[in-house]
Amino acid sequence: MRLPYKIVRLETQPTYCTQGNTQLDFRLTLDGWVEGLWFYWVPDGTPPSEALEEETLYLEGPFAGPEVRGFLTVSPEGRVLGVGTQGIEVRPDRRLWVRGVRGGVLGPYVGAVNVVRPDSTSFCDPSW
Length: 128
Known about the structure:
Layout: E1 6-12, E2 15-17, E3 22-31, E4 33-43, E5 56-64, E6 67-74, E7 94-102, E8 105-106, E9 110-111, E10 117-119
């Protein structure tokens, strides 16, 4: 089945903080429109279909192209809109995924073109 929209070129900033929550900026190119977007914030190498519940977020739209921008608040533990704990630990590189929904039909997963790396410095301030 051919979907009436296409999501391409999901991009994110290159780092996230390990000492506190991060506002993870994103942008994507959308050909058409969607009723909403599912986001999947998973360790790099993990398929988005295996994301834990706390690693996902549905953002209700509608959204129309050509460009959609925004941010997710993510915790050092990998939760979307979660509350982070204190302490410094080694964290995995992560990758943001998104998929559209229209008419109740989920589209394909589209992964960010880049990996987001953890930053454990005390001056962590991720940006594009």
